[in-house]
Each structure stands twice: as C-alpha cells, then as structure tokens.
Write the structure tokens for this entry.
Amino acid sequence: MTQISILGCGWLGFPLAKKLIEKGHSVNGSTTSENKLSLLENAGINPFLVALESDSISESINDFLKNSEILIIDIPPKLRGNNSDSSNPSQKIFVEKMQKLIPYIEKSTVKKVLFVSSTSVYGDENGIITEETIPNPETESGKQLLLAEAFLQKNQNFETTILRFGGLISEDRHPVKFLAGKENLENPDAPVNLIHQNDCIGIIEEIIKQSKWNDVFNAVAPFHPTREEYYTQKAKEQNLVLPKFNTEKSNIKKIISSEKIETNLNYHFKPENH
C-alpha cells in the first residue's frame, strides 16, 4: 500500500482517489470547499482543506503531505472567471502558486510528483505532436503550465512525471453540449484530440503501478475524426441541435500522438468511451 496525496479532488481528482483506494492505496485529498470535506470522507478519502494562493498556503498543507510518497497535482490554472487572483493575467499567478508549494514538498516525505498538465502547451502546431515536439504555448494558461512543469522537473528533491491531457470528456462533461446549435464554427476538418475521464484515471494508475517517473506523456485517445464528423455524430446521439461549421475558416490539423503511452505503459484506450 502506498499513501498518495491528491491536490485538487475535483472532476478528475475525486473519482481518481476512489479508484486508488479500491486498489488498496491510502489517499489524502484536498479541496478548497468546506462543504466537500464530508463528501471526501464518505468516499474513504482523508479530507483536507487546502487553499493555495500565489502569496500564501494553508497550514494544513503539512498534514496533507505527511507520510505520503506520491503527490498528484491536479489544479487548473484558472486564469479566467471570478478568480480574485487573476486581475492581471500577465502575472505568473499559477507559477507562483507552484513555487509556493515546492518548499513544502521538499521537506515532506513525498518522493514522486505527478503533475496534470495540458496539451495546450503545444499551441496550434500543425502535424503530429509527440513528447519530442518543442512546446510553443499561445494561451496564458498554456504558458503558465509549461513554466510550472519546468520548476517541478528541475527540482532534485523529488521525481516528477508530467501528464499532458487533451480535451477532457466524460458522460457528464462533453463539449458537444456547448457547441450544439452553434453556427459558423471554425476548423471543421481539424482532428479532435480528446480523452475520457476513465482513460485519464487508467493512465495515472499505470504510471503509479509501473513507477514511470521523471517522464513526460501526452494523453489523448488515438481516435481523431474531424471536428465536424465527431460533433455532428455526438449531437445526433444526444438528440441535440446539430452544430454548423464554416468551411471557409482556417484549419489547423494538429494530431496529438499517444503512441508513447501505448508503447511505454502498454496502455489500451477504450474506444467505447469516445
């Protein structure tokens, strides 16, 4: 049994924690919402209220990390919306949060870190994107994720694996719901680069099980229909108004390769999830 701390028990972290407990691990889980503490506890997760800001961190961080060998960091940059920290996105808010966290990891029992990142670090490159592709982020969140990756990877006190997920989907979270009925959508011929929550969890389980540390993985299902094909089909399946695409809009043909995950982890993506 390994004790694992999951920083951010949200859309992915919560079901991941439950799956790791099923596999016999002990899991500390953090949330920023006091209301969720009982939810975590009822699922068998050791609950901690941890708020990570660019200039402060909850005192509970030490207890949250105590006796854990592995830390999974799954907190999005949140550079838009009502985040009080993001009044000036040019400030490296997310990076500062990671810098604030790192000394606490250094003095803890944590020896392995899994950092949940995003394929947004590659920007809108054309062609096949592999882990060897030099990142070129265009969004502020992509830029900050890339900087955070570097800070963690270069730290000699623990081993860090970076997991770059494509677009996240699940039964209750699917982009077609936002695109249904929309018109003039761009990039109809662009391939989709998506990954289902079940595959996200399965891949993290394999990284832990096989001790694949000090590595970088792109995690996108190896199914790449065009945006028009995919979202039209999904809209039909869910009885939604079909989205309409503008064929004159520029097309970026970026395919994120998951070959490394399939060969190095021997992981098999589940077609039925997509």
Remarks:
- The mean pLDDT is 92.
- The longest strand covers residues 112-118.
- The longest helix spans residues 93-106.
